[in-house]
Amino acid sequence: MNISRNLLMCICLVLMVGCNKTDENIDKSSPILDRNNYVLEINRISERPDVQFPTDALTENNYEEVNEGLHYAITISSNGQTITIEPGAITGRRLSDIEESLFFELDGGVFAEGRFIVWTTENNIEAELTIYGSGVPIIKSERGYLFPE
Q1: Of the four listed, 60, 89, 94, 112, which is most buried by Cβ atoms within 10 Å?
Q2: Shortest CA distance to 40 belongs to which of 70, 81, 63, 61?
Q3: Alpha carbon separation from 54 to 89, 115, 139 (Å, rounded)
Q4: What is d(CA 97, CA 31) in angstroms, rounded to the nearest whole number?
Q5: Distance (Å, rounded) from C-alpha 97 to C-alpha 30?
Q6: Reported pTM
Q7: Domain segments of the chain: what residues?
Q8: pLDDT for the residue 31
Q9: Cα–Cα distance list, 10 to 15, 17, 19, 20, 32 (Å)
């Protein structure tokens, strides 16, 4: 009986410690983003691109260059797990790092979700802000350079 009780206590302790881990405890630092605050300066826009699904990847051919002075304030949590995009109070969480890029799923402040992807080119950090639609897969996608604030 004593062995069973001790075994049960050990199992409970392991479960309690394991369940106590939160995203705050997990270090998801990234060599791409080493700060918390950025500005996304938009230089390419795609309005309602011809795609079948919201998750379809867009190519540079889907975009038109713009010089309208559009920009967003990007805040990434200290553990790299959450993102806030202003204006609009858009929020999301980091899902994965794919092929040297960071992928955030946007689910706050948008009607039908969206994505925020960050990647590096030769000398720059670039990002894509894509808002999914209802009735159309993608309402709008914007790309540009990401600069530390």
Answers
A1: 94
A2: 70
A3: 21, 9, 9
A4: 11
A5: 9
A6: 0.77
A7: 28-148
A8: 58
A9: 9, 11, 14, 15, 40
